[in-house]
Structure formats: structure tokens, C-alpha cells
Amino acid sequence: MTMVEEHTTLFWQHLVQEDWEKRSRSFDSIPSSLCRLDAQAIFRLLTWCSEHMAASEVRSYLHRADRTVWQLCTKPEPDVLPMRADGSLANYHDRMRRAIPREDGYSIFVNEVIRYDPQAWRSVRDFVRGLVQHIGLPTRGFDSGVGLGQYDFTPFGLHVDPGRSAFVLPIVGHKHFRIWPADYVKQHPELVRSHGNYGPLVKDSLMLEAGPGGLLYWPSDAWHIAEGANDGEFTVMVAIGALLGTGRMLATVPCDVDNLQQSARNMPEGFAATMEGTHIMKRGATADQVWLAFLSGLGLRHPISMRQDALPDERLQAQPRSPILWRPLPDRQFAIAVNGHCTVETGDWIPESLDQINTGASFEVPELAQKLVEWLWACRALENARPA
Ligand SMILES: [Fe+2]
Q1: In terms of residue numbers, what domain contains 324?
Q2: Deepest of 20, 173, 188, 223, by most Cβ within 10 A of its Cβ?
Q3: Confidence band of 230 (pLDDT split at 50, 70, 90)
């Protein structure tokens, strides 16, 4: 284990022991390997969304100075998001400031932005890896989104997201979240949906705060509200949720991140029943395929975006950290999964070939496996071989 990996493992070990689903907590700094998304990467993600509004999930709110909030719409115009001509998040914010009245604020939420950006997808997958190592895979997977703007309060006030254990990575500016535990809000229902003017109840809240390089965490039953800094700072955050579900279904399933193929062989008992009716159980797919795809994407809600270019006519090698998983099916068939994608192929040669590719050694595309290798290339499981 490298020192960076050790540092990361210790961080998660500590968080899981002390805080996971128990208490809210902020960290001024976390191992740098956990946050490889910076302002430039987020600008790139959001620019893509502004150019593909139909494919993006965007909610945009205008906040009035009198603390009323106007939901503009769920299908806003592209220019509410950063556009290529802005060149940076900072310039985008300047443009927004010119477009809205001086006293007012704005907040924008974009869901699942990573599904179109392989680099960001890998960053979030790498972030959750250390958590999964300790708790297993949340049975509803992980969501991830971006929130940005300049605003006093979360537009819909104090709320809870049942079953969603939350991580916030501040990318620009300092994020402040005020938290009350579930039991407290039960005793003080007047807090529900409130924003500001909490009266004496404020003294029993916990304020979480962190800037870029830090992290905020709260358990799935914590009531929370984002509060802007007094100077109306522009903030951008990446929010990642571990979706544990509610009720009596499994909250997590075992997953050995260091040996995913081992986990691939052992589909957890009750997995199919737990997944029934969720977005994860895709129409027409068998439980074997769903389990394998889910495992290979470490629970991220969407698979990595597929690449469209042709397989290069060169030696290839596996992408490190994207192990290709397989599970035998009847009739010499195999389910094969990587980066959240799954396919079915026929042939006794499959396990040995995949094991060979997974060693990371460079290889030439065998005639027999041309179609499979093309699929692996599209799923970003492979890269051009580095010169020996
Ligand atoms: Fe929330």
C-alpha cells in the first residue's frame, strides 16, 4: 500500500468508526486523493450541461432579498448554467450577478452531472471506494450532483433526505450547513421547512463549515439546511449521497473493493428482492447482470459514459482500477461487467481471457475476442499500452 492509499484508508476507517450514521461532522482537510474535482473540472461538467439541457437535470431558484424563494423552473434556459464563453466559474458568477437584481441571490442544482464526464465519474468512484471498503455497497447506490450559487438558505428550508447519508465537497467558497438531529426536530416540528429565525432553538443546532479541500458529512436522519455566509459568498459544491434506502430492506451489501471478482461470485442473499422496483433493477436484465454492473460501478447510479471512437490498431492494456468482472450463466454464457456496464458473451475462453487482461499486461486484440474487446474499449476499461 502506498502512503497516499494508507492515508486514505485511515481517513475512512476513522470516519466510519466515529461518525458514520451517528453524527454530523466537518473536516477542514481530507486526503487530496479523495477530491480530484476542482473548479475547472466543475466548469467543464456544467458547460456540457448547458450545451445539452435536454439531457441534464437542472433546478434553478431565484432568492428574493425578503427571503422568499422563486423557483424559476425545472427546465430553465441554458444560460443559467456556466457557458463556454464564460471561460471560468468566476466569470459565470459575474455574469449572473449582472443579470439578477443586486439584493437577490440564486441557487442551482444539477443532478448526476458525472454521467457524461468520465474523469468526474472516476473521481466520484474513487471517492466512494474507501467508504465501500468499510461499509459495503449502499443498496440504492450513490447519487452525485453539483450545487452552486449565492444564496442565504437552501430554497426549500430545513429538511431531511431519508435514507441518504450525505457528503459535501466544497469546490469554491465555504459551505455552511446547519444541522439538527432527528429526535430534536420531532420535538420541535416548527423547525420543518424553516429558514432563519429559529429563535432559541438555534443554540441546539450544529453548524458545519468547510472550504475547498475539506468535507462535510451528516447521517441519513439529520435535518439540514445550507446557509450562506454573511458576505454572500459564491459557492460551488459537489454533493454525494450514499443511498441506504428506508424500511426493512438491506441497507448495504458486502463488497470487497480489493477483490471485486471475489464479490462478483457471491451475489448477496436477498439482493434481487431488495433491488426489485428500483432504478437499479433495469427492465429485462437478470439479477446476475444487475449485481455485476452495480458492483463494477461501485454503486454509482449511472455507468461511465461510453466512448464512440474506434478501437485503435495497437497494443492495449487494462485501465488500472477498472477491473473487468464476470459471472458464469447457463449455456457457456458469461455476464461481463466493467465501470457500471454489463454485457453477455458466449465462450469457454472468456474467464481466462479476462483474467489475462486484468493482470494489466499489454495485449494484442485476439481475433476471437474482437467484439468483446471493442465493447471493453467503449466502456473505457482499456487504454493504449504504454511503451515497455
Ligand atoms: Fe438535502
Answers
A1: 254-384
A2: 223
A3: low
- Cβ-proximal residues to 26 (8 Å cutoff; 6+ apart), any chain: 208, 209, 210, 214, 215, 216, 217
Q: How far is the CA of 158 from the centre of ligand 1 (A)?
A: 8
Residues 271, 206, single domain; the answer is: no
Residues 6+ apart with CB under 8 A from 230: none
Which run of H or E residues covers position 219? none
CA of 159 to the centre of ligand 1 (A): 6
Name the pTM for this structure. Answer: 0.93
pLDDT at 150 over 70: yes
375: number of Cβ within 10 Å: 18
> Can you tell me whether residue 55 is helix, strand or coil?
helix
Tell me: do 309 and 239 sit in the same domain: no
Identify the H or E element spanning 107. Answer: strand 105-111
What residue has cell string 455497497?
137
When pLDDT is averaged across residues 251-266 and rounded to a whole number, the result is 92
